[in-house]
Amino acid sequence: MFSLQRMIDDMGRKRQERRFLSRSAGKLKEAIEHVYGVSVAELKEIFGPAYTATVPEDLPAYIEVRNLGEIGISAYLVRQTIEVGQVPPCIKMIREGREETSWQHYENGNLHTLVKHDQELSGINMRLLTNDVALIRQLAKADFNPPCPWVAFYELGPFIGSLQGNAEYWYHYVWGRYWESLSLSEQAAFLEKKRGETVTYMVDQEWQDWVNELRFRDPRTRNSNPD
Prior knowledge:
six-stranded antiparallel beta sheet; alpha+beta; 2 domains
């Protein structure tokens, strides 16, 4: 049976996990062991000695990457929120050229990637523990994105005004980080693609309202006329 309280409790737990990742090394260890079901000692054995490869500094801001060397794990913690329909191609990208040695543990020589994902609001949080820097670069270049506002919070409508609660969190920490990482030309191409996906159920005026609101929320176009 559907339980609103269960949903609220589950969302609160996920928020707590994210807060763990931003606090002390002790809390970080606790969070990783909780999410991946593997002890830090086991992870140190999996990823082996310290590595020399570094993650590019120009990765988009919406892909969160944290070096776990501070807790003795020679790997990175990578997190990105994507659309539900993008999970299969994302997993396919992770699998290619790698052997799945156990459930969602992919290996290529001394390179390892552990994958966990969970649903939150209308998107999927993809979380990787990996020392495969080439894979991190590949995922950053892939055409993955968080669920769009007209999917995640359609019930609020395009003109949302002030935000609070889950919508405030999502617009600020998930969608906003993605949208503002795109150049204006990339935003235009994104909207053109998404219009093709929405044309069967959204009339032109409603679509234009969503587009205008998105442009208004971006400081680069807030005071200019949309193309």
